[in-house]
Design a protein that fits this description.
heterodimer, A: alpha/beta, FAD/NAD(P)-binding domain, 7-stranded mixed beta sheet, 6-stranded antiparallel beta sheet, 24% helix, B: 7 helices
Chain lengths: 534, 151
Amino acid sequence: MAEETVDVLIIGAGASGAAMAWSLADTRMRIVCLEQGGWMNPATYPTTGMDWEARSLGDFSVSPNSRGRPEDYPVNDTDSPIKASMFNAVGGSTILYAGHFPRLHPSDFRTATLDGVGADWPIDYATLEPYYAENDRMMGVAGLAGDPAYPPKEFPLPPVPLGKLGETLAAGFNQLGWHWWPSDSAIATQPYRGRDRCVNLGPCISGCSQGAKASTDITYWPEAVRQGVEVRTGCRVREILMRDDGMADGVIYYDAEGNECRQRAEIVIVACNGIGTPRLLLNSKSSAFPDGIANRSGLVGKNLMFHPYGMVVGFFDDPLDGYKGPTGCSIMSQEFYETDLSRGFVRGYSFEAVRGMGPVSSALSGMGAGRIPWGEGHHEGFRSVFNRTASLLAICEDLAEERNRVTLDPELTDSNGIPAPKLDYRLSENSQKMLAHGVERAKEVLEAAGARETDVNSPLSVAGWHLMGTARMGTDPQRSVVNEWGRSHDVRNLFIIDGSIFVTSGGVNPTSTIQALALYVADRMKQNLATLFD
Amino acid sequence: MSLSDDELRGLSALLNEVIPPSADGRMPGAGEIGLAPRIARDLARQEVVLDAVLTGLGTLDRLARGECGAAFGALLAEDRKRILAQVAEAGTDLAPLLAFPAYLAYYEHPKVLVALGLDARPPHPVGYELEPFDQRLLESVRRRARLYREA
């Protein structure tokens, strides 16, 4: 049988791969997606069992290094104060994300022009706005219109309930006269497109058993598959192959049984996240690209951006019922988002409120903070912590720097022997000042809300959820990896659509923008099918 | 590796020192609710830690039998504390090794959850009801001028 050449090959079934597959499905092209993980079964997620908190430290840990599932690959992050978090499955990291879903601001696309730092994106907020809106409809985003921190936007679903914890924090922000707003949340607060409503289980970040949180395995993928897109699970791509004419030929991958396979394609789309994508590109060496495919600029893997997180935990006298409701979605603040140089740094950050923890997490974190001793005083310590904490995260904009990068580890490999990624990352002086400012303002809010004490954890080491910038977009092939619609400058049938193509990070969770970008790139591809490779 | 009955009794006694019963009697001690076998299984995943705990339990038992004529797990609370203090002074404090698995197992145990006033069930499928919030809280924010910059 002749080897099949598919029209479109998507690598990665996470946030962006799913949106792209769904959008392209109406072209009736033959589309295949290779995903190293499998389909998840929400009935087996941790919150269905008594050991739900323990499992969030084990087989549902956000760290691939701790989790060590067969489908995970290791990440050498010893030279980074922020450790990588991700999940490998159909749905990707949306399986474990909080569903906090704000958009970038218009200014985030113009930091060079407005503030003299970073680079301007080759597109702007207005270009992405219809794709943000389409994505909100597909994912089912809950929120409240009228936020003065954003251009006007509407939501398909009403906001998540704030609970006593959210209302307590909101009162603190009001007392200081600072901005706050109910979080934009990718959570179905009412039955929506076949998904049941949120029942406030709490720990969204170990998978939503209820199916209310919008992970792409239950939003985009079912619709894409119904339209004929094929998802092949357990398939880990080793490298992208080149043809003699300078076009991508397809990929070599290992199937679930470890067999080496080849898949040819007319179009190759990489959607493996800000670490997985540069890893794959750097592993795809050829005579045309000895330093990795699409890397003539030398920028593949460089400009790695996280969001440095400063976390402040407030301890209150009264119970806050914080274990009820979506962990990371209640209220957010953008009082300090836009640049004000009098603060001592450029650009800014958001606050995201975090609800309380369950009993096990409260006990373990209280032990780590020296608040819950073993032996005498244990129960008094526990009572002072459990159900009496509320936290604020300062999500700081990270400015792109070439020294912060993803490379290939010379020794570490995954279970298929493919070289693993290595991170080299340092916090800039600007980030450190921004973190310090965020921590002090968070303390003020928590105290205004009634906290008797606060603990600080900054920078939060486990907060490497947002992986951006390692194959940035731009119009100049010397200064960017892909063009203004995600096509590689160097390989005309190779596209990149995940957080790698971000030019700046903003100070908000990136998934909404990652997916809006994927829909935008898909639309541009469809509009230009006849001349796609010109 | 499975623990002998004596070792499990010793471990239970030790767990009661890590998380003792509360003074008001509401909260059980960690050794009273049958956690020892589960914690032994958890410890077995890290052989070095299990070895250290077993060695420590052996030391406690020898001292207990020498000084009190009974196994460590059978001692009265006062004697247990005294023996533990002696061993800790000699540089073998087992509590730090046991605290993490003990906290983990204790706070997911149904009896403990009920004692805390919580339902002894996983979050799903029942979840929790929360009321919609009072949007009057936002009045002052709505009155503010635009915060974002046009670009």
